[in-house]
Amino acid sequence: MATQNQDRLRSHFASLDQTASAQAGGWDSLWETATFLPWDRGAANPALIDLLAHPSSPPTSPDANPTPGAPPPGPAPAVDLPRAVQDGKRRKALVPGCGKGYDVALFAAYGYDAVGLEVSAHAGRAAEEYLKNAGRGLEGEYEGRDGGEGKGKAVCVVGDFFEDAWLKEVGVGPEGGFDVIYDNTFLCALPPSLRPAWARRISQLLAKDGKLICLEFPTHKPATSGGPPFSLPPTVHVELLKRPGEEISYNEGGVVVATDRSPGEGALVRVAHYTPQRTHDVAVIKGVVRDCVSVWQHA
User: What pTM did the predictor assign?
Assistant: First the structure.
């Protein structure tokens, strides 16, 4: 059942075209007034906090996740994240749709030069203000995490994820420029028609030895309820990333159909998939964590 916030958010976007530019205007108007920001939880997702703190053994939920395509309970595989500093050079992390920049501050605390991207100029300004003094966070997650290498930079730029202009601001080329990309509530905010373009762009921006971290949310929401946020069970990522840029199939209920298509050009493969021990409360349904974390790399 949709919540009052979900209904209000869906109504806000219902009258807009399903183009990237029209959707961008919809988000910017919300950030301009800043009186209705239901996606802003005030902190980085605990699942990301735990993954960065314990990449060799990310904490997992002991409960079975009933979402179709969710991994069974059990230990998560070790996640081999790129070192934040390699040969004296800082690696770059990208957080598209970063909001106020909680995740950007977190990656910077671990030594990465972290870049947040926002299509909304008002959101970008909010992130700039937050990143000036991110503080300790709720769990001290922004301090003492760099292994002695020192914090990386934390910046937010305003631009269109699907265009190249913003890349020049952060000194990155249009292909293979980011060592870590984190998608939390970005893909689920896009109209489904833009999903293939998201996958193609992610594949282009991810470095050859980079890792894509996806917080799969909302997995429990029926596809028929629309969005944003749009239903995002694990099958969506699997189908999109095996052939980035290609259309995927949906059944009559709007649910993504799993296929046996072979990987195509630019394919990403899933190297870890688990239900995290913790996440934001919105994704804990009747005491059970419904989010999933997936980690990807180039095939």
Answer: 0.94
